[in-house]
Every structure is written in C-alpha cells, then in structure tokens.
Design goal:
By secondary structure, the protein is mainly β. The protein is 0% helix and 49% strand.
Length: 124
C-alpha cells in the first residue's frame, strides 16, 4: 500500500525548467518501480518516464528523451522528474504512479497506485 502526492507544477515559458516531485508514504516504497505519465488537454494519458525499484534502469518517451530526467531517492521516499527545455506541447497534468509488477512500465495498466496529478503549463 502506498499513497502518492505530486508537487512542483506551475506556469513556465518555453525553454524553461521545472522539477516535479512525488512524495510517497508506505512501508515498502523502495520495492516499487515508479513512473510519470501526463495527460494533455483533450487527449489521452501518455507515458513520460519510468525508473526501476533500484534506480538502475530508466525509460523515457521519445518526445522527452534528452530533456527530462527521472530519479528517485528511496531514503526520502521521493521520485522526481527534472524537466528542461520545456515546450508548449509539454503542457499537461502530470501523474506519478507506482507498481510492484515486472510488467511493461510504459503501460499505465502496469501501475497499481496513482497520485492526483499536478498541472504543468508551458507558454510560447
């Protein structure tokens, strides 16, 4: 069992940066693989990034590769998403998710727990 709370969203200009954080409460946080997803206005939820329970492997959507960095600090029960060189198409509600499965981490259905989301708006 784990609860997730996202923070760090806001309004930024294109080319700027934001760092999203996800605070987790639960006794076995270090056993969960973590993911970030986003849902742009009027569109379906899409994969952004994921990190394995140990932090030794990361995965990124092609649209954010080279610009976003996912990391985790198991001692602090947090997972972060550093977003650099933001573009207007990055505008979305960003969600943190957690899973104990070893399934395909790019698929939302692989995740058992979800935060409530944080809004990121990038102006041109």
């Amino acid at each position: 069992q784990v609860q997730l709370v996202e923070s760090g969203g806001g309004l930024v200009q294109a080319g700027g940066s934001l760092r999203l954080s996800c605070a987790a409460s639960g006794r076995t946080f270090s056993s969960y693989a973590m993911g970030w997803f986003r849902q742009p206005p009027g569109k379906e939820r899409e994969f952004v990034a994921a990190i394995t329970w140990s932090g030794g492997r990361t995965y990124y959507a092609d649209s954010v590769k080279g610009r976003f960095t996912i990391s985790r600090d198991n001692a602090k029960n947090t997972v972060s998403l550093q977003m650099d060189n933001l573009k207007p198409e990055d505008t979305a509600v960003y969600y943190c998710a957690a899973t104990t499965s070893r399934g395909l981490l790019m698929a939302g259905r692989a995740y058992d727990y979800w935060g409530q989301g944080t809004q990121v708006t990038v102006s041109s």
